[in-house]
Description:
Bound molecules: NADP nicotinamide-adenine-dinucleotide phosphate
Mean pLDDT: 96
Number of strands: 10
Low-confidence stretches: none
CATH topology: Dihydrofolate Reductase, subunit A
Amino acid sequence: xxxxxxxxxxKNREIGLNNDLLWSISEDLQNFKKITMGHYLVMGRKxxxxxxxxxxxxxxxxxxxDPYLSVGDHYIAHSVEEAIYLAEKNGEDExxxxxxxxxxxxxxxxxxxxxLSRVDWEGDADTYFPEYDEAQWSLQKEDFxxxxxxxxxxxxxxxxxxxxx
Length: 165
Ligand SMILES: NC(=O)c1ccc[n+]([C@@H]2O[C@H](COP(=O)([O-])OP(=O)(O)OC[C@H]3O[C@@H](n4cnc5c(N)ncnc54)[C@H](OP(=O)(O)O)[C@@H]3O)[C@@H](O)[C@H]2O)c1
């Protein structure tokens, strides 16, 4: 099973503030929907709570250390290994890692692909995408999206594959 990270990150790797996103870019959200549709999504308990709505057509695996947490018909995992096991057991071919900070960090060494939206934005944040070695990732695709209005930043979509050793 392939493991893929999907994230939208600011100029200084900012990803969130006060358990919310830092910008709202509809094209990026549509892109997220298109890439993740039909797949299992792994996310931390806080990201799940901050989304606060159904993600139609996708199954969620929510990471928590809480042995009692149960969330509707979503899967709960208490470790990275358990999350991978659950997805594999259900026949997933590309597991999507959707944050936040520690979840990205934990899965980074196990990931094959990154779908990164690099947003031309910098400012206050309390959650950051982990530092990664750019030499380990080869750029397969880069598309630039200009700002649609004064309140939406421009951004670039990057598809990266991990360089095999
Ligand atoms: N820009 C983006 O692409 C993007 C994507 C996702 C999230 N975000 C933003 O990031 C912020 C949320 O991220 P966050 O880093 O604060 O929290 P988070 O990763 O969503 O959730 C953290 C929680 O997940 C659980 N967890 C994480 N790793 C685990 C592991 N290996 N094993 C067991 N449980 C684990 C723990 O839950 P318990 O406390 O229940 O034990 C932990 O407290 C929000 O601001 C959100 O909007 C941005």
